[in-house]
Structures are given as structure tokens and as C-alpha cells.
Design brief:
Length: 163
């Protein structure tokens, strides 16, 4: 058992202000639209409030939020997938225009197993080892996924980029 003392409890509002953008961006990588991403972010912070979770470090706080929003999105996608509604039921809804650069479009088009690791690696600055711990994967698996995603992105974007 970890015997490190709990740090002074921060208000949920402080946690929300500090991590909203990260939680929203992770949700957007899964949901691919702002409406569902906002719902997922809201549910993530609601779970934080309901849990009464206290964290030892800011890193633990951020990791908990990323894992939770990933799980919320997966749950939402499973529910949408199982829905009996037809796409025609939603034709009247117009999505707002968002400017997403070509790179983010390519990342969003990646298979699920690559999208999350690429986002966490390049946009959030996590190492492969940290991502592996967050996602419950082996570090070598994460490194392989990053490498394969990089090759896919290179093909999709038609560029010649290296680290």
C-alpha cells in the first residue's frame, strides 16, 4: 500500500479549470464531435464529484481523469452502437463547423488502438511507459502502436517526417 500522504484537497472547480481542455480533447479523439465530447467531459467530472476521489499528486489526478474519460467514451460508443435508431433519425441535426487541422483529421481517422496512444504521446507529452500504465498495456505494445501509427500517419499525410 502506498503510504505517501494525500496532498491538500483541491476543489473540484480547481481540478475542472486545470484539466477541462485535456479531458475534452481526449473525449473528442474518441467521439469525433463536440456535442458528444462535451457530454463525455461532463460525465467525467460528475464521476469525479460522486467518487470523492483524492489524489496524492497532480500527475495521479490527470491520469485518473484521462482513464475515466476514455472509459466514459467507450461506454457511450457501446451504447450508440447498440442503439436501434437509424442515421436518418438524425439528419435534421447540423453539426457546427470546427476547424481541425489536417494532422488531427488524420489522427482521428486512425484505428482506435493507435488514436489514443498517439494523442497521449504527442499532445499530452506522456512517455510510452506512462501510457502503458494508464491503459493497462505493456510498454512495448504502446511503443509498437506509436511506431505503427507514425507510419500510417506518414502515409496518410504524404509527408516525410521523422522524430
Amino acid at each position: 500500500m502506498d503510504t505517501a500522504p494525500l496532498r491538500t484537497a483541491r476543489s473540484t472547480y480547481d481540478i475542472y479549470r486545470e484539466h477541462l481542455n485535456t479531458v475534452y480533447r481526449v473525449a473528442f479523439t474518441y467521439m469525433k464531435n463536440s456535442f458528444d465530447a462535451e457530454d463525455a467531459a461532463q460525465e467525467t467530472f460528475a464521476r469525479l464529484i460522486r467518487s470523492g476521489q483524492r489524489f496524492r499528486t497532480p500527475e495521479q489526478e490527470k491520469a485518473w481523469l484521462i482513464v475515466t474519460v476514455s472509459n466514459v467514451c467507450k461506454d457511450m460508443l457501446r451504447r450508440h452502437y447498440r442503439s436501434d435508431r437509424s442515421l436518418a433519425d438524425y439528419e435534421h441535426l447540423a453539426a457546427p463547423a470546427h476547424e481541425i487541422d489536417q494532422t488531427m483529421e488524420a489522427i482521428l481517422a486512425l484505428p482506435e488502438k493507435y488514436k489514443t496512444v498517439v494523442y497521449l504521446f504527442y499532445y499530452e507529452g506522456y512517455t510510452a511507459r506512462e501510457i502503458a500504465k494508464l491503459l493497462g498495456e505493456k510498454p512495448n505494445t504502446v511503443s509498437t502502436r506509436i511506431s505503427r501509427a507514425r507510419q500510417l500517419l506518414k502515409t496518410m499525410l504524404g509527408g516525410d517526417f521523422d522524430d
